[in-house]
Structure formats: structure tokens, C-alpha cells
């Protein structure tokens, strides 16, 4: 029996953002094809404790992720992702914080690659917490950035994020801002990565052509996007059942009549469609699903357990 344990640095060293994006893209396609057994996650204490699991039928592999979330500490996410296979006793245990931020960024990379304008190069990121860096890395991997604006209520935190990312953003013009309304006005892509409970900006503040990713709100009590934006956009989601249970902005828009359930397109379905319906504005709303964790864990298993899965 082989058992491998990876801390956050080990996960980061082993998996690049480009690898994660490709793996999560394949995962979304398999999810749309019904290849996953994936219950909606167990939520305790209004999202402070989460348990997620997914079984990939084609490979007889599975993951279980347990974590706690506390935005008042660093890192905000703590826990483990455990990889298991039918017929093998080998296991892999990986840091949940690193896997979660990497796979969330990768999902945004998949959506941005599919939905953002081909010439998009100006990103406004709202939020400078633990998810923020991988949001930038993912967008930059699929739409090389010319400009990056980081919006945060604490300008020192935004500046620290830009300093961390500087070696990866050679030639990119960067700035910090405090006002989301002004900062999104000339963006091609907007990423929202905050624990907000009310919309971060108005729909009118956005340009006519823009792609918006929203990953921060993962409970019905949380909300980053206004109803008017969702009503005026082609809206893509990670997984319907999870979104209808957990996405505050989608639930609010449905209740207000700004959206109908048939307006929501799962990303996996869009990836395999011959033609993807888009308007001038597109939105990707994610609450995060266990398939994404499985996709990154699969990469780790291939590297550290010697797996060669179909």
C-alpha cells in the first residue's frame, strides 16, 4: 500500500494552471455526459464546514473533500482531498485549500476561454483574498492580459497581490482601485471573488461587451451580481442542482423574475454544443462542485501514484 500526502506547496509544484484548466475542461464534458456520481455537497454551520464527493464511473475513482471555511483567517480554506480507486489500496491526500483555489481558477479558465471575446485583455478582479491569484492566473492562461485592475477595500491587500503576481505578469499594466463601479467600466473580463452578500456593482457600470465570472458567493445568503446583469446576459453555470440550492444571486434573480431556469446553461453542455448562444454579455456563475476537485486530484494521482487512467 502506498500513501502520498501533499501539502499546499506540493500541490502547487505538481500541477500548473494550464494542466488544471485542461483537466477541469475534460471533467465538465464528462459531467455533462453523466459520467459522475456526484451528490450535492453537505453543508454545516451555513457553509463553515463542507463535505464534497464525486465518483467517476469510467475510471472507478473517487474523491472525498472535507474542509472548513473561515474568511477571518489565512488561509480561509483548510482541509483535505482524499483520492481513492476501486481495486487499489493506494491513497493520495492533498491540501484542500490549494486544490480548491486551483480548481476554481481552472473552471474560470475554461469558461473564459469559451465565452470571453477572443481579443479580451483587460481584467478587473474584485477581491484580493485566497482565491484571487488563481483567478488571474487562469484568465491570463487563456486570454493573455494587457491590463489588470485589482479592487479591494484594503488597498494594501490589493497591492500585495499584485506584488505576488508580478513575476508572472511581465508586460501587463497593473493598478489597484477601491471603487468597483469605476473599475469595471472598461473591462473585457470581470472576476468576482468575494464573500459579498449584496451586488458588487450595477449592470449599468459594465461595458456593453463583457464576460463576468463570479465564484465568491457559494451560499444562498451570499450575492455578488445584480439581477439586471443576469437578466441581460447569457448565463452559464457549473452544475444545475448545486446552483439551484446554493447560488444566492441565481436564486434571487429567479425569485425576482429576472431569470427562468431554462435561461441557465451548464458549462459542460456548452462545451459540447455545436453552437453556444451568447449575447454581448456573458456570465459564468460557479459555486464549485466535486468534479473539479476530482479533476485536479486525478492529475496528482497520475504524477505520484503512477496511475495512467483512460
Keywords:
single chain, 310 residues, alpha/beta, ornithine cyclodeaminase, domain 1, Rossmann fold, 8-stranded parallel beta sheet, 7-stranded mixed beta sheet, 11 helices
Would you kindly provide a written description of the structure presented here, covering whatever features stand out?
This protein is α/β, with parallel strands linked by helices and 310 residues long. It has 2 domains: 112 residues, ornithine cyclodeaminase, domain 1 (2-Layer Sandwich); 172 residues, 3-Layer(aba) Sandwich (Rossmann fold), CATH 3.40.50. It is 36% helix and 25% strand. It is built from 11 helices and 15 strands. The strands form 2 sheets. The protein has an 8-stranded parallel β-sheet. Strands 1, 2, 3, 4, 5, 6 and 7 form a 7-stranded mixed β-sheet that branches. Strand 4 and strand 5 form a beta hairpin. It is globular. The two termini are 22 Å apart. The mean pLDDT is 95.
Gist of the model:
The chain has 310 residues and is an alpha/beta fold. It has helices spanning 8-14, 17-32, 96-115, 132-142, 155-165, 180-183, 227-231, 240-246, 248-256, 267-272, 290-304, and strands at residues 3-6, 36-37, 42-44, 49-56, 61-69, 77-85, 91-95, 122-126, 147-151, 173-177, 189-192, 210-214, 234-237, 264-266, 281-285. An 8-stranded parallel beta sheet has the order 10-9-8-11-12-15-13-14.
Strand element count: 15
User: Which sheet architecture does the biggest sheet show?
Assistant: 8 strands, parallel
CATH architecture of the largest domain: 3-Layer(aba) Sandwich
Order of helices and strands: EHHEEEEEEHEHEHEHEEHEHHEHEH
Helix content bin: 25-40%
Residue-averaged pLDDT? 95
Number of domains: 2
Named CATH topology of the largest domain = Rossmann fold
Shape: globular
Q: Give the full name of the CATH homologous superfamily of the largest domain.
A: NAD(P)-binding Rossmann-like Domain
Supply Rg. Answer: 18 Å
